[in-house]
Every structure is written in structure tokens, then in C-alpha cells.
Amino acid sequence: MSKVGIVLGSIRKNSFSEQIAKNVASLFPDGYKAEFIDIAKLPLYNQDYDENSPEEYTTFRNQIKEVDAVLFVTPEHNRSIPAALKNALDVASRPWGQSVWNGKPAAIISQSISGLSGFGANHHLRQCLTFLNMPTVQQPEVYLANAQDLLDDTGKITNEGTMEFLQGFVNTFVDLMKKY
Ligand SMILES: Cc1cc2nc3c(=O)[nH]c(=O)nc-3n(C[C@H](O)[C@H](O)[C@H](O)COP(=O)(O)O)c2cc1C
Questions:
Q1: What residues are in contact with ligand 1 under a 6 Å CB criterion?
Q2: Cα 166 to averaged position of ligand 1 atoms, centre (Å)
Q3: How far is CA 153 from CA 19, 29, 162, in A?
Q4: Residue 36 · residue 66 · CB < 8 Å
Q5: Domain CATH code at residue 69
Q6: Ligand 1 center to residue 112 CA distance, Å?
Q7: Nearest CA to ligand 1 atom 2
Q8: Cis peptide before 95 (omega within 30 of 0)
Q9: What's the Cα-to-Cα distance from 111 to each of 4, 33, 89, 132, 146, rounded to whole Å?
Q10: What pLDDT does residue 47 have?
């Protein structure tokens, strides 16, 4: 069984990111298990903690270590990734030389309530993942606009075209995972 960790850029309850991610999690084929990895309780990264890390850091690093790949689903905050997500990237990248992101295939979905669909966040995240040595799905890029209209009251994406597009994206991600 291959494991995909889902890391959300939003830490608010029932976020659009979470609802979208649940739809996408259902698209993985047999033999793949997608599980959410929480970043909300991570203390702000501090290099002083490299010597003696808080328990939350250790738990999170172990959770990332245990998955074969990571799917990021994120909103945009002020044209970049939310601080909580940057914090999580930093926490699991240290101590120096022990980054647990290293070499893990990744995929990115950005979303927004506006038409810009989190383009800035998507590409700032891509920049970080390049440095963290995470081979990342390049095409198709996934930018989901008007997130509030995409989801029904139960959190389901009802637009068939969007779900087909997301299925193609997941298939590409799975192909990438097989190469590593
Ligand atoms: C602090 C803050 C900054 C934001 N900046 C942007 C932004 O730069 N671009 C954008 O499209 N939306 C921006 N938004 C709106 C959210 O990204 C948008 O509503 C998103 O769909 C919320 O996703 P979530 O439900 O997963 O948290 C911002 C929201 C907050 C709280």
C-alpha cells in the first residue's frame, strides 16, 4: 500500500482546502491510501529547537517520513502561501541534512474564492519544493477558482468536468510516484 500525505495550507475548520482535498483523496486508485497530516499545532519554527525539538515537531516529521508522497492543497494569503504551511515546510526540513521532505514526490492544488485561484501561492510553494528536492507534478497545474461555487452544501465537487480534470491530475501524480 502506498501512502499519500495530504498537507493543507489552511488550518481553519472545514476550509475549502479541506473540502477539496477530501474530493481528491477519493480519486486515488486501489493500493493508494491518502491521509491528512495536521500542521495546525506546530509551534513556530525556531532553530534553537534543532537540539531539543518539541514533541509536535517529532510527530510531524515522523508522519512525513512515513508517507511515500505529499499532496499540498492550499489557499493563498497575501499572494503567497499561508504562514502555517511555510512553518510546516521549515519544521520538517530541519535539522540541516535531515529533511524528511527530501526526494518525496509532490503535487500542488491551489484554490481561491477569487478568479486568481491562488496562482501566487501555487508558485511560491513550487519554489520551496524545488529547494526541498521534491519532484513535483508540473502538468496539469491545478488552480481552482471560485472555490465557494465549486462545492455543494455537503462539500462535494459536483462539476463533472472539474472531477475529470482532477482525476487526470491524480493519475499523473500516481505515475510520478511510481518513478521514485
Ligand atoms: C490573511 C488572508 C489573506 C488572503 N490573501 C489572499 C490572496 O492574496 N489571494 C486570494 O486569492 N485570496 C486571498 N485570501 C482569501 C483566501 O485565500 C480564500 O478565501 C480561500 O479560498 C480560503 O481557503 P480556505 O477555506 O482553505 O482557508 C486571503 C485570506 C486571508 C485570511
A1: 10, 12, 15-17, 75-79, 111-114, 116, 118, 147
A2: 21
A3: 10, 26, 17
A4: no
A5: 3.40.50.360
A6: 6
A7: 77
A8: yes
A9: 20, 23, 19, 22, 8
A10: 97
Domain that holds residue 18: 2-178
Query: What pTM was computed for the model?
Result: 0.98
The total of other beta-carbon atoms located within 10 Å of residue 158's CB is 11
Q: Which three cell numbers stand for residue 127?
A: 519554489
Mean pLDDT in consecutive groups of 10 residues from the start of the chain, 180 residues? 98 98 98 98 97 97 98 98 98 98 98 97 98 98 97 97 98 97
Based on the structure, what is the number of domains in the chain? 1
CA of residue 77 to ligand 1 center, whole Å: 5
Q: What is the pLDDT of residue 21?
A: 98
Which of the listed residues 11, 36, 112, 157 should we mutate to test ligand 1's pocket, taking the one with most ligand atoms within 8 A of CB?
A: 112
